[in-house]
Predict the 3D structure of the following.
Amino acid sequence: MDKKEITHVLQEIGTLLELQGENPFKSRAYVNAARALELLPDALPSLVERMKSHQVKGIGKALAEKITELAATGKLAYHEKLKASVPAGLLDILQVPGLGPKKTRLLWTQLGIESLGELEYACNENRLVVLEGFGARSQEKVLQGIERLKRFRGRYHLSAARQRAAPLLEHLARHPATRRLSIAGSLRRCRETIRDLDLVAASAAPAALLDAFASLPGVERVEEREETRATVILDNGMRAELHVVPDAAFPFALLALTGSAEHTALLRQRARARGLTLTKDGLLQGDRPLACADEAAIYQALDLAFIPPELREDYGEVVAAEAGSLPRLFDETAVRGIFHVHTTWSDGAAGAEAMALRARELGYAYLGISDHSKSAFYARGLDEERVRQQAAELAALDARLEGIRIFRGIEADILPDGRLDYDDDVLASFDFVIGSVHSHFNLSEGEMTARLCRALSNPYLTMLGHPTGRLLLARDPYSVDMHAVIDAAAEHGKIIEINANPHRLDLDWRLCRYATERGARFSINPDAHHLDGLADTAYGVAVARKGWLEAGQVVTTLDAEEVAAALARR
Ligand code: DGT
Ligand code: CA
Ligand code: ZN
């Protein structure tokens, strides 16, 4: 290990000690030693020799021993032990401008934030606004800092990818050389995270279109350019690739570039079994190309019903398409109302009335408000007195507002033992109760499963909120037997939330079909913390589609009266 590496380790020890809340003198000793070492002109071997005889100013005996250990072995047991005692993600958080060890420690100890992704999520839920030493402005700055850091990371949320793809598609669609245009890849399949954007265009003038692509607003630089293809890097670091093909080849290119690779492999195999060859350029019978006007025609040529892009994951969709048993997917227009919305009563950024007006504007017939419950102190959760006050406000609002019905709910914490954090009479006073896990994520699988199953057996519970607790790109799901949880939900007639917040998308679409088999019902809930959050419902619809759900399984496709009846039966 050279001197630079050693000073880096010493500095990190100082930081780790501060993160642990150790005496500041202790951590400063390491930072000072690192500085002293940096300034000394000696080469490492002679330094180590001098340290052994206590001749180096600012470096005492204990430190000298540690430096010697580092120089000799390249490792330091003390450093390793410290590192293991602090979540690794905190060191990423320290990269955010304005967040030193003290503030990072506050985020960790007060809000349980252990990674950049969790920090971003907390900002979006306004957690930093009320945290001591922070505020609305510093929360905004933290978010900007995270945005800059993410530029160079690997994957993006579905929402970020959609937002960046939309203007690219809009501009390219207007270009005179464009005949057909589509998004492809994982974004078209609505995967929960996206590595890069894939676009396909049909055009007789690829060079002109690729030139236009390279100079679109938001494009920072061109990474690769070929005759019919260009890869660019957007100004947030995201990569986007445009393929330009002749119009007749468009459906084949779109199919191939939409993927998944597993799905298209099944199609190629099926083509071969029929004496055909399917490639990204066309469908051949011997040497003779078979024309297909669109993707549906390709599926038809393979004796298959059209398979929507969301289902192209090799999850049994080809067999279902052959048998004519694909699900009848629904879209956003089928969703009639919304549950799981936070307001300024807890950690939301907008009041109930503003949320209701926005929901009405978006065409929804009802809005189920559910602020946090009393254990969620970090989110200004409601104690019994504030529950009563809010009830009065919401009843008045519901009476006053035309054209939208307000349901009065709560997002109650599921305590570690599976109880909800209010007495039964309080729980009974709500129109609906969402039960969610917000703490004690580290239970064993058995304990967590028992916890959720007990909550699901509670007669006052209506829905299970964000069932696996995952934060995409930030936090894994807690360990839990989701099959047992789904069984319990089905047994007790409880609704399973599809949390539509693009950082969650929880229930995972991969579990939807099991839940369908068990007869479970779902609710697509945006978990909105601000006005724009209501529109996240669209991402929940994407999950429902990927999970093969039909409208009849989703309670928020019911009208207000029907849903009120369903809630009353909980
Ligand atoms: P991503 O970008 O990791 O979120 O996921 P995709 O699915 O967009 O993957 P990407 O961008 O590498 O490639 C876009 C599409 O191109 C992919 O969905 C299917 C097709 N593709 C890519 N690599 C292969 C491959 O090795 N074999 C086949 N059959 N298709 C591929
Ligand atoms: Ca891609
Ligand atoms: Zn929640």
